[in-house]
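Field guide to reading this record: the first block holds the primary sequence, the second block holds the structure written as discrete tokens, and the final block holds curator observations. Each block starts with its own label. This record concerns Bacterioferritin-associated ferredoxin, catalogued under organism Photobacterium sp..

BLOCK 1 — SEQUENCE
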Amino acid sequence: MYVCLCHGVSDKKIRKLVSEQGVTDIKGIKKCTALGTQCGKCIRMAKDIINESAVVLYKQAS
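BLOCK 2 — STRUCTURE
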């Protein structure tokens, strides 16, 4: 699913950045993509995806 329609950033891309590169916040996502730099409507959804992905990684590590 596309999270940022303005720049074509998908939930899969965000999850991959969290799991493979250890990105844990919007600032980190913005360093790797253009998410949130145009209209900004995607920020809330991206935060939710980051948090969900972090919880999954934490549970896998335990």
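BLOCK 3 — OBSERVATIONS
The chain has a mean pLDDT of 93.
The domain at 2-61 is CATH 1.10.10.1100 (Arc Repressor Mutant, subunit A).
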